[in-house]
Design goal:
Helices cover 81% and strands 0% of the residues. The protein has 102 residues and is an all-alpha fold. It has one domain. Helix 1 runs antiparallel to helix 3 and helix 1 packs parallel to helix 4. The model has no long low-confidence stretch (mean pLDDT 95).
Length: 102
């Protein structure tokens, strides 16, 4: 089965959101902080609840973009979230190195 570019962008979006959710939650649980002030505010509800709220809102935004046939928005979000997930992984590695050095 071959995917068209729009389907690939949608799947990539969902996978990056999952990656962001998992890496952010792990980073928070190991001593990291949230850099996005809006998401940081949501975290007042609790780490899991705040992240879920942020993802639900972002997925709603993505659904609107797809329905309006604004796939360029999804593709740009994919680039941004690929960088965010990479950043989260770098934070996790740094936290792990600090805990092993201590």
């Amino acid at each position: 089965m071959k995917l068209n570019s729009d389907s690939a962008a949608k799947i990539t979006f969902v996978l990056l959101q999952l990656g962001d959710f998992v890496t952010t939650l792990y980073a928070l649980e190991t001593g990291g902080g949230e850099g996005n002030p809006i998401v940081a505010h949501f975290l007042l509800l609790g780490s899991l609840q705040g992240l879920l709220l942020a993802k639900v809102l972002l997925l709603a935004f993505a659904v609107v973009a797809v329905r309006l046939k604004k796939m360029s928005v999804i593709r740009k979000c994919n680039v941004v979230y690929a960088l965010i997930v990479s950043w989260n992984i770098s934070i996790i590695v740094r936290l792990a190195m600090q805990s092993h050095a201590a």
